[in-house]
Amino acid sequence: MSNTGDSVIVRFVTEDDKEGWQGLWRSFQDFYSVSFPNELDEFNFKRFLDPNVKMWAAVAVDSTSGKIIGMINFLSHMTTWDFKDKVYINDLYVDESSRVKGVGRELIQFVYEEADKLDTPNVYWCTDESNHRAQLLYTKIGYKAPKSLYKRNGY
User: Fold this and answer.
1) What UniProt keywords apply to this chain's record, in alphabetical order (predicted)?
2) Residues forming a β-bridge with 72
C-alpha cells in the first residue's frame, strides 16, 4: 500500500472495488476513443483477483471520501533479454478532477514497489504520442526508451 500524504491510498483492488475500477476503466476507454465489450470488464477483473494469474490492478482511493480516483493495470511476463521477468503497465487512468496532484505518480510508484518485491525491477509502459500531460510525469519517474512500437495490421 502506498500513501500520497494523508489524502490518497494506493492498494490492490478487492472484489468490492469492481464498480469504481469499472467506472475509471470506461473513462480510460473514452479518453483513448476505444471501446471494449462489457464482458471484458468481468474477464479482466476476475484475472486481477486470481492469485494464479500474473496480472494485477491497483486503485488510488481518496481517503477522505473513499472514492476510487485512479487505477493502474499491470502484468509480469518473461523475456528473452534477461533471466528476470519484466513488468508492463498496461493501463493507467486518473479521474480528471484528481489530476496533477501526484496520484499518477503514486500509482506508478506502487507498481515499482510491487515489481521490486517480485524481483522484477524492469518496469515499462507506453503512451500515445499526443498525451503530453502524462509524458510530463513519465519523464520525471522514468525515461523515454529509444524504441518505436509496431503492431500487426488490422489489430
Assistant:
1) Acyltransferase, Transferase
2) 58, 92
Q: What is the per-residue burial (b if ≥16 Cβ within 10 Å, else e) of 64-81?
A: eeeebbbbbbbbbeeeee
- pLDDT > 60? residue 21: yes
**CB-based burial of residue 43 (10 Å sphere; 0-12 exposed, 13-18 middle, 19+ buried)?**
exposed
pLDDT tens digits along 58-77: 999 999 999 999 999 999 99
Domains in the chain, CATH or no CATH each:
2-141 (3.40.630.30)
Alpha-carbon gap, residue 80 to 98, rounded angstroms: 38
pLDDT-derived band at 96, boundaries 50, 70, 90: confident
Task: Tell me which of 150 and 49 has the higher pLDDT.
Answer: 49
CB 8 within 8 A of CB 61: yes
